[in-house]
Amino acid sequence: MTSSWEVLHGSVQGPRKQLCQDRMKFRRRDGDVLVLAVADGHGARAHRYSHIGARLAVDAFLEVVDQAPEITARWARRELGALVVHRWNELVAQHHHREPPLRQPDLELYGTTLIGGVLAPHATLACQIGDGDLCVVIDGEVHMPLRAETAAFGDETDSLCSANARHLARIWWEPHRRPGLVTLSTDGLSNSFADPAGFGAFVSGLRDRLAERGADPVQQDLPGWLDRAASYSGDDTTLLAAWRAAPQDDEEWTPHPMTAKET
Question: What are the PPM-type phosphatase domain coordinates in residue numbering (predicted)?
Answer without folding.
Answer: 16-227
